[in-house]
Every structure is written in C-alpha cells, then in structure tokens.
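Entry:
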Amino acid sequence: MKLAGLIAKPDGSLVRGHVRFADRITALDSVSDAGDDYILPGFVDLQVNGSHGIDVMNASADALATLSRHLAREGTVAWMPTAVTAPIEKIAQVHESIASALENSQRDDSAEAAAILGMHLEGPFISPHRLGAHPTLNLEPRGDAFDRVLAMRALRLLTLAPELPGALDAIRRLAARNVVVSIGHTNATLDEANAGIAAGAQMFTHLFNAMRPLNHRDPGVIAAALTPSPAIPAIIPDSVHVHPAMLRLAVTARGIDGIIIVTDKVAPTKTTNAEKTVRRARATIRDGAARLDDGTLAGSIISMLDGVRIMVDQAGVSIGDAAVMAATNPANLVGAGDRGRIQAGGRADLIVLNQALELKSVFIGGRELS
C-alpha cells in the first residue's frame, strides 16, 4: 500500500513523498508532487484514565478493549490505561483487568484497536500535599504495599513523589524491573527532584499540575523538569491545565525531544453525561475539563489530536514537531520504539490529516480502520 503527502520524520521535519507499507513500513520515497495531506505516526498516550463513558478503575478487560477501539478512531494507536490512588486490593483488581486486556490484544493482533502497552499507576505513592483530585489514601513506597505493586506483571509506568520515605530505593527497584518512573503529585524541592532523576526517574507527570509551584527562591520540582536531563516532562495541552505561555516556555526550555503530550482524559469524555465519578469522587465536565465540586481539576476531555492542534495553534510548534511529542517521544520512553516513527522497518501505525489538521484515516499494522 502507498500513502502520499507530507511525511513527518522522527526529527520533526516534513518531507513530501510516499510511504510504502504492508504491516510494516517498507520504503519512503521523496516525490515533489505527492500532495498536501500530512502523514504522521499514530499517537501514543501514556495517561488515559478513561473515555467514552469507560472508567479504567471500573472497567473489565472487554471494556478496555472497547476503549482501545474508540481511541484508535481518534488517531491514538497505543495507550496506557491509568489507575489512580486507591486501596492496594482495588489497584490489584484494576491491574488484573488491564493485564487480561493486554494479553488478549497480544493474542489477537487483527483487531482495529489501539495497543495496550501496560498499566500506568498514578498513586498511591504520592504527596498528601499535592493530591489534585486523588483521595487521601497515600502510602509510602516501601513495605508490603510497594512489594505487591512491584510484582504486578503489567506495570510499565508508575508516578510517585520522590521526597517520600523510601522513594529513592523504590525508583531504583522499579528501574531494575524496566518500569518507567515518573515524578508527579509531588511537593519535592529541586534537590529532591534531582535525587529522583539520579535514582532513575525518567518522566514528570502532567508538568505544572499537582506540583510544588515554581518560585525564584525555591525553584522546586518544576525547575528540575524544565532543565534538560534524562527525565522528560509530560504535559496536558488542553488550554485549561496549562496556559499557552507555559506551553511555549516548556518547549523553549526542553526542545521538541524533551516534551511528551498526554491527555489525562477521563471517562465522561465523548459522552453526553457531564457528571460522573472520576478518581473516586464526583466530577462534572465544565469550563473545558473535568472538575470536582470545589473546582479542582480532575482530568481533561481532549483527544491526542486535540492536544496536537493546541500545541500547533497556541505553542507555535510545527505539526512535525507536535508529532514527535505525541508519538515518537512517548514510544521511545516506554521501549516501544517500533511505534511512533515513520521509518523503514517500523510498524505501519499511521494517521493522515488534511491541511486543517482534520483526521482523514488511521492505519494500524498497515490496515485501514473502517
């Protein structure tokens, strides 16, 4: 099969030409009259709490498979179901549903669905001072509770606060098991955040949100995130969680290779029900996001493509650069390097946009979604 248009390359540049592929990309040809559609790698979302009425915390394996199909039709070709702070017994139940959905999808590679990459666990090892919408069920990352989490076979990404007792040893143990550690929901000082990076943390969860504020005399964790390091900040570009000026600041500070786009979307997204339990509390969709009764943000309602458009329109990045942030960088971070880039030998997980950045088609493993 062949697609023609402006091809987004892994360095953010665009080249006019053809992408030839079967289940994998076989060749890229430079052709001057190939057309004006954008051909991008499919998006990889590392933080999805729910969407289309499906809440990861209550979803069966079949429901997660249904959500995978919905996400694929938005241009997201791989994702991480994200569990939030809850009793360990509840987290274990959520994990089993995610693990079953992951194993089922690996057995059936013909489904027109986004791949499940594993579980992102966002809590309970977070700061009680930076809960956001999370409940006050916070634990230190050590002892039996942490050992139970560490043993979860589908765990691929874990958000924690590096200032907690036992956190640095926990980061080292998680990294040894090839689990990506993300610094988030944290009241860490600059030194505490840098100690987390030195121990092996590789990401920051929703930069600027649920973090110690940036201050010129107390730089804190945000200064660590904006300083080039092995840890890459993830950001929610929904025009609510982060002001456009701060999106631009983050891109200026870290460059296109140093930002990951996530949605942090929640179950009421893409539904007519504006009120639903989110992160174990009642939330309402209003003013462009999910909010608790007191106005606390409880997640976004955007798709990855919405986030890409906002990065282009409000942060001033090119569509090619936005594709790096939404596909290449997250895929690389979690070791899914055959996704998220258009190059010979890579998976043919591709999306086509018109010049208005409207979705025209999605290909997963070389098959066009109907």
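The chain has one domain: 42-340.
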